[in-house]
Amino acid sequence: MSAPLAVAAVAFLARASQLGLFSAEALILLDRGVAEGAIGLVMAAAAAGGALAQLAAGRWGHRCRTTRMTLLGTGVQSAGCLAFATLTPWWSLAAADFLLMAGAALTATGLRATLAARAPGGRVPRADQLERAYGRLTAAQMLGALVGPLGAGAVLLHGSAGAAWAAAAVALTATAVAGTADRRDRHDRAAAGPAHGTGRPADAESPPEPAAPAARPLLSGPRPPLPVTLWPLLVVLFGITALYGGYSVVWAVYLRGLGARDTVIAWSAACLALPALVLSPRAGAVLPRVSRPVLIRCAALVIGCCACLYPLVGSVAAAVALSLAEGVLLAVALPLVSAQVARDAGPGRTARAFGLLGTADALGSGLGTALGGALLAQGGAGEAFRFSGVLCLLCAAASLVPVLLRPPVSPSSPPMSFSSETGRSPHVSRSSPRIRPVRR
Q1: Dihedral of the CA atoms 283, 287, 288, 292 (nearest 10)?
Q2: Is 180 helix (H, G, I), strand (E, B) or coil?
């Protein structure tokens, strides 16, 4: 899976299968006689499957090669799609949704960890390489998010039964690509020498290599726990996904209240996907001299402010334009979050780190969806937008807690290497002159 083409292909196919089925799921359930009250239970099973799979990846992901995790995820997703296409009782469809989302979550975690894993020769990706790689991954996923629902809509013209079978076919294709890449990765590692031919997972614990220029401080002693290390990124992503979880409930109601047609509502989702498709591969080139954690926090703050502006907007065009601006910010923030997680986790912990990141993603999306629906019923779309925006702002502020609680550096403390928060040494400025030896 080290080849970027294989990663992009699996990401595109898996996301197209997942969202293609989800876009037609309600229609499929109604055509099969599922009561409207049970539809929410079926969809809740999907959210539970995604969260549990991410927790499992965070706990045991370091024991499995990243390519094997991706293959396992696509296989489970294919099984869920096939079960959804053949079963009829609502509880069996809920179990199929559970499998489908669990497989999609494992696939996403495996792909992210694959990009962060060291090559068979032991090379560690540079910071700019990681940002470009995660930008391409986000673009492939967004392309799948566009093509999947469009393909499902074309299949629905001939009946809802074919949508599940089409999603299963696409998922099986992703499994075939992931299997081929896994065999190639195993062969490459076996040919690289004894160090990589013993079956050791791609990101298993191994002796650390010399730190890159943007690594964490080189201090003796055990590394801090992953939740502590990744807290700023986890809480920022939680706030962003909670915001868009609320959007998924209230967006159509909000635009219809402004007088938008159904076709405009359907195609307004492209306002988030298209900027990511175009800009995500170039996210690493945005303000390269600015600290990545600072840039991620600023993007989250602006996104939260945009959410608070929707109740004040009075036209469909202005709402779509505001959504387009949010799509640009997301296109920059999401690849940078993944690249920063890969850098902060360090060798041997990338799979667990991305499992934690996916858990924050799933929990935020589930919480935002539940609260968005409750607020929509109580106070309308405006209240839901305001709450989602304030929650995103609070999460961005909470990400600063480790920075504020960081103990000050005393003059007698040992020198440190480059800081992950600033990208350069905290003791030496950029303009420090070179010290020349004194001749006797």
Answers
A1: -80
A2: helix
Pair 20, 152: CB distance under 8 Å? yes
Number of helical (H) and strand (E) elements in the chain, helices listed first? 15, 0
C-beta separation of 152 from 18 below 8 A: no
CB atoms near residue 233 (< 10 Å)? 25
pLDDT digits (tens, 9 = 90+) for 183-203: 887 887 777 655 444 444 444
In the Cβ-directed half-sphere of 243, how many Cα atoms lie within 13 Å? 30
The DSSP string of 171-212 is HHHHHHHHHHHHHHHHHHHHHT-TTTSS---TT---PPPPPP
Residue 165: HSE in the Cβ half-sphere, 13 Å Cα cutoff: 8
Cβ-proximal residues to 325 (8 Å cutoff; 6+ apart), any chain: 306
Per-residue burial over 109-135, b = 16 or more CB atoms within 10 Å of its CB, e = otherwise: bbbbbbbbbbebeeebbebeebbbbbb
Q: Which two tokens stand for residue 298?
A: 């600023």
pLDDT in tens, 287-324: 788 888 899 999 999 999 999 999 998 888 999 899 88
The rounded Cα 304 to chain-centroid distance in angstroms is 18
Cβ 350 vs Cβ 306: under 8 Å: no
Q: How far apart are CA 174 and CA 149, in angstroms?
A: 17
Cα separation, 335 vs 135, in Å, equals 5
CA angle 401, 403, 408 (to 5 degrees): 125
Structure confidence at residue 221 (pLDDT): 55
Least Cα distance to 106 among 147, 49, 177 occurs for 49
Question: Nearest-CA neighbor of 322 among 313, 330, 331, 334?
Answer: 313
154 membership: H or E segment, kind and range: helix 127-156
- The residues near 299 (Cβ < 8 Å, ≥ 6 apart) are 329, 330, 332, 333
Q: Which residues of 283-319 are buried (b: 16+ CB within 10 A; e: fewer)?
A: bbebeeeebbbebbbbbbbbbbebbbebbebeebeeb
Which parts of the chain have pLDDT scores under 50? 1-2, 120, 195-220, 409-435, 440
CA dist., res. 272 & res. 307, Å (int): 14
What pLDDT does 192 receive?
65
